[in-house]
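Schema walkthrough. Field components (list of strings):
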Amino acid sequence: MSDVVEKTLSALPGLFDSQTGAARITSRLRQLVKSITELTSKHEEESLIKQELSSMKEQVSSPNTSMKQMREIMVRAMYCEMLGYDASFTYIHAIKLAQQGGVLEKRVGYLAVSLFLNEGHELLLLLVNTVLKDLQSTNVIEAYMALTVVAQVFPKDMIPAVLPLLEDKLSEIIRRKAVLALYKFYLIAPNQVQHIHAKFRKALCDRDPGVMTSSLHIYLQLITESPDDYKDLTGSFVTILKQVVDGKLPVDFNYHNVPAPWLQIQLLRILSLLGKEDRSTSELMYEVLDESLRRAEMNHNITYAILYECVKAIYTIHPKAELLEKAARCIGNFVLSPKINLRYLGLKALTYVVQHDAKLALQHQMTIIECLDHTDFTIKRETLELLFRITNAQNVTVIVEKMLDFLHVYEQCTTSYKMNVRCYVPMITLTFAPDNSWFIQTMNDVFSTGGDLLQQDVPNNFLRLLAEGKREEDDQLRLYAVNSYLTVLNGDASHLPQRFLQVMSWVCTTTHTHTHTHTHTQNKNSAMRLIQILVRDLKKSYLLNISVRLYSNFKYHFSSSTLILEGVKRVWGRDGYLRQNETTAPPVDEPSAAVQPSGQQEAAERLEPQPEPSTQNQDKLQLASSLFVGLGAGSSMSLLGKSEAPPPRFRKKPRPHESSSSSSSGTSERSSDSSSRSSHSTTDSFLYGSLLEEEPATSISAFSHTPKSSTANGLAQNKDTKEDRRANTSQILGGDMVIVRPNTFQDKHPSLVSSDLTALLPADLKDLPHSDVISLTSDPSLSLSSCRLFRDEALLLVILISNCTETVIKDVAVQLTCEELEVWNVMNCLEGNSTSVCHYALLMDEPHTNVSFTGTVSYQTQPGHTNTLSFSGTLSAADFIRPLVVSTEEYGKLWLSLSHDVKQNLKLLTDASDPLRTTLNALKDALQLHVVDIIGSEGIVACRLLSGAPCLLHCRVNGAALAMWLRSPHPALPDCILYHCQRALAQH
Amino acid sequence: MIKAILIFNNHGKPRLIRFYQYFAEDMQQQIIRETFHLVSKRDDNVCNFLEGGSLIGGSDYKLIYRHYATLYFVFCVDSSESELGILDLIQLICFVFGQVFVETLDKCFENVCELDLIFHMDKVHYILQEVVMGGMVLETNMNEIVAQVELQNRMEKSEGGLSGAPARAVSAVKNMNLPEIPRNINIGDINIKVPSLSPF
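Field assembly_structure (string):
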């Protein structure tokens, strides 16, 4: 008997066994489900599922398992995965089912694949051939299933292989799915489907309404991206909509007697995109919109969905009075509806519409106030969103009060709900603040209730506002801020968010540069007090933060932390930094429209005639009058842009008039100019460098230089040019490499033997870990060397310039270029046989494995004779990596929250008794990693890039290799670290 | 686009999970828990919309849900979907479930019990696949959906019937000799080497 026949016979009993079919299949799952529901504890469930999984494992690897049994196992595996258990051993079998089975097996296999695997999963590549085969199959069902899986999950790299087959499918009965699959491809790889746009058009004109519906997905996307390219299709969309509305589609497409509602919604969205800010296109659609509005007046949920889209479209396209009127009435129906869902949509529509027509909010003010007190979180939130859009200088205090109430009440709530509201408060506060004290108090409130959740630009903009402006009024503001912080800190300061503390420390360490002499003493006292409290209360990092700033002001007296207070005294005691005071412009009389104090009377005068006061109680009316003040016909709302979420804008303080500032002499005019410019660069560097992240290094740049009078042309001879240049350089921030110049050391040292160059490092930097001094280049006059210092917050690149001759070298200028960024450094002269040190604080924004820097030094040995000397060097990403000290629990939490991961096997240093520990230690030494924990054959390691992105490494001994799994929020960082790990181990 | 469809019961036990945007498995479980936490706190007299949890896109996404007896149906969608449209889509899907799973004359969802969904997990997925494909609403024509599902059911039944047995025996014999079955894949080992893995 042949082998084959023997096998067949042995397989037959199994086949007949499973004859009972579907009943048997479901019974295993049924059993499992039943026994799980009977369990009481999570623990029991776990052990039961584990048992189940191991029996499944046995079954799948047994050769006697029939295809049918496999199908059943697959369903059980789906169930286990749904509950969160790992059934990854079945993945390959899911693929095999799709490859080998009949139609039913394929169906389960494909389903399991699309549930289990994601687009990047390596096993998915095994499926590609099967999909290709099935797409070409004569069996429509097989092709149908293959299309389904292609639209759900397909590897991006394999799109070219399948694309021609999909295009063929566009003419077949299953073309509806093919269209959607192509749309999916368009989403993940738009360039690859460029050539089939004509086929999309064909799909739009398809006689099957289903195909047309599918193609609308594509068009909605395409038109969102570039509406101008599809204006010619407006007529077609209008015709389609008209036919749908008129009920020309088969009755099958009706839902609750409404013809194809989802199709209508889609079409209305497309039309509103096409008609936006385009009069002639809009005119094409007025009629059909009117018709839709009219037809949709029925009483089912889904008609409201259509109405809502209609209203939105009418307000988006070029306005037509008649339609607007109808739409407004429609919104009224929504807002006044007793159904809560409709009311929500009404509020949403109002929020959208008040941008065009603020009076509409006035009509519904009582409803809005009711919604403000609604128990439903979502409604309340949406109401605040609406209020945000009608904020003006007169109602800002009431609205902010409401928003802060909301934040306080939902303090415990973990959702992102509050996020927007949180951002709105500072946004409108900054724009409409009626006076200083209210402004500062509100901002304090914002910062102290969950300031750490604020977006980065909020504190940045706040600080920028404080830093800007030289007028007396601005100084009052700063003074008020400092005083209010004192009050806050005198209370219980332990619960304050870190970001608030950072803001405070910033304000108190920097405001002095702008302060007038006569408020100086007062300011000094309060700031002293504040710093004392900060020093007492704050954690080490903030001490460091402050001290770094003080240090940048007073570089000469800084060697240990005990000097902080001395530094503090000096900060407030030195008048040398206040030179610009003499020329500060007198306060300008013209008040800013935005900050204009709003008298209650004035507000009342501006009130629009209110609708008839009903029987509502007095409180609500009062609230209404304060909320909707200034919403008259003529009032313009500077906050409301066209877009749904306007970008934050901030109150621009009026600059001192040039005429008033140019008081006495030409020099003072120049100086006030330059001081304002330089304070700008200060604040700009704030924004880009995002000071309030973890890197105080960035902040150093901003305040080391106080504005001084300067001329802004070329390489001038006086020392002030340098200041000016600094101001310029700190503006060029924000590329993939951030270079910030803290300050330049010009300490002259007597010439030393070159091997002892490290001794030249400034005293306070000597203790930092640093690399060897590398010679960069030299010529007969100068020799250059560099040294890298690893500070906690930045990499310091120190360039040592030594004069090898006996003569004085003049006008030494150092220029350092890194990628597109330049840094200048100008020196007057370099004495014979002396060495000068420049250093640069560097941060890496985008991880690169290596970055190179180049630079030139130009100098004059004799007047009129300029020499240049160029140099270059390389920095590795490893220089920018610092240990991230976390506990095992924190690591675990962080691990789950990170998205980008990379896995790779690395060399294990096997020559030692404890290979894992030895390897990790080697990596730690080479890369400054932090070994969090080593448990058995696994180790966890953490590090961060200087600009803040963490990277977590999970290492496991896997035979003779080290399986490393890296995760980071930054997509490129794991690769980068992996590269350096490989190198470090290879060199070991 | 629809980002996820989550069905769980009043205790937060998942009954059907379908993600259309990739999340790691443990993240999926966390999202389910968070969503349940958010949705279950809401009374029946509040609206059916809320912003997504912090794990699934926050305020960019919206959760649209319906609560039927013991089950929550939650759709997580982005801003391109109409809220009321999705709300009715949920109803439509439930109606189809009623048509498919309830074998009485009264084919409405109220009579579909939780266990029907789990016991027919695969079928529920097939139905969903007809309605939503890759996160996009594909079919809202109920008759069409039901017809598709019934066609598939017939396919299954014809296989299980008595007439199926000899045919299967034959195909089993055929299978033994099928050359295209890759014999080099070892079933017990999942560490199959994939030849051209993209490096990252």
